Amino acid sequence: MSDKTCRFCRSPLKHTFVDLGVSPLANSFIKENQLSKMEPFYPLHTYVCDQCFLVQLEEFESPEHIFKDYAYFSSFSDSWLDHAKNYVNSVIDKFKLGPHSKVIEIASNDGYLLQYFKEKNIPVLGVEPAENVALKAMEKGIPTRTEFFGKVFARQLVVEGLKGDLIIANNVLAHVPDLHDFVGGMKQLMHPLGVITVEFPHILNLICQNQFDTIYHEHFSYFSLLTVQEIFKAHNLEVFDVEEIPTHGGSLRIFAKHEEDRSKVIHSNIGKLIEKEKSLSLHRLDTYQKFYDLVKQTKVKILEFFIQAKKSGKTIVGYGAPAKGNTLLNYCGIGKELLPYTVDRNPFKQGLYLPGTHIPVKAPDMISETKPDYVFILPWNLKEEIMDQMSFIREWGGQFVVAIPEIEVL
Description:
- This protein is an alpha/beta fold.
- The protein has 14 helices and 17 strands.
- 33% of the residues lie in helices and 21% in strands.
- The chain has a seven-stranded mixed beta sheet. Strands 14-13-12-15-16-17 form a six-stranded mixed beta sheet.
- Helix 5 packs parallel to helix 6 (179-189).
- InterPro entries: Methyltransf_Zn-bd_dom_put, Methyltransf_Zn-bd_dom_put_sf, MeTrfase_14, SAM-dependent_MTases_sf.
């Protein structure tokens, strides 16, 4: 593996984290007229760097190909909108933001978050490369640039006189193949006394909660605080606070500043979380290497459940069409014979087919019509919200199933 090098520290990548075989791009949904055409599959093999402990995938497809026309719209999850609103209220108060401030969000999606700043008369700018998604934000009156973010585009914004008092990058750092270009761009774009906040799934939870399905080609990297600190430090940025948040099965929200900015104190949360990561050996290679065995055992248990249900004449259908669900279904080899359809609230996914498995995506009413024995929740991070929305399945004795961290009937 000596020809592969770490995208942060450039060390040779020699150690497997987990190998999920081959899989299509997790958000490359299939239209009916494409079902008979050949679909590209790529290795879903993650490595861990033995120097900086960054877990990463190779780049098989460019971000331009993956994200130019994207099927994920943030506004279709009520709990995600609540999370965005709470974040906005928190940072406005914490950093005394107002009409004099400028908030710039990178990967701003459909304006799900910036709309709450706009409501408070705080000037905003979204940067969103997916044209179809950016259009929805602009329809809400959110100024949005359809560009991929990096140093070149950051310089362009600075020349236009646009610097951010708050730069937001939620759930995008993992999607960036060139970390130095992205973090360097944020450095350029931030006001001298500004703040960067970044949210990303915490690899501590991926390992401890067996969240292997959060590995897919759109996620190039998987981070600990230990590693992220080093990435930001390489660009003269200092992480001064961190929060553990429940989104995406357990994420981190970090707050960063220019190293030379002395107006902000380093919060004790940083040292506490670093100690937590070290106590769980995230600075040791064998912690990462042991994970693969657990994933293989989980695959067997998931398949055993589906096969036993099929033998017993039980019906299982899916709820949701998230990227993580496509990783799980393709890795486990679960197709239409075991899961005849899944449903999703997002009308842009309805009528399409899941990549690889070609399981059809229906509207949620289909569950009331077919009355399945089990509803398999693919976005397990939203299971409480989904179980509440779909509680009526109890009327005919239906039950919910999740597979992460292990197969469980709810």
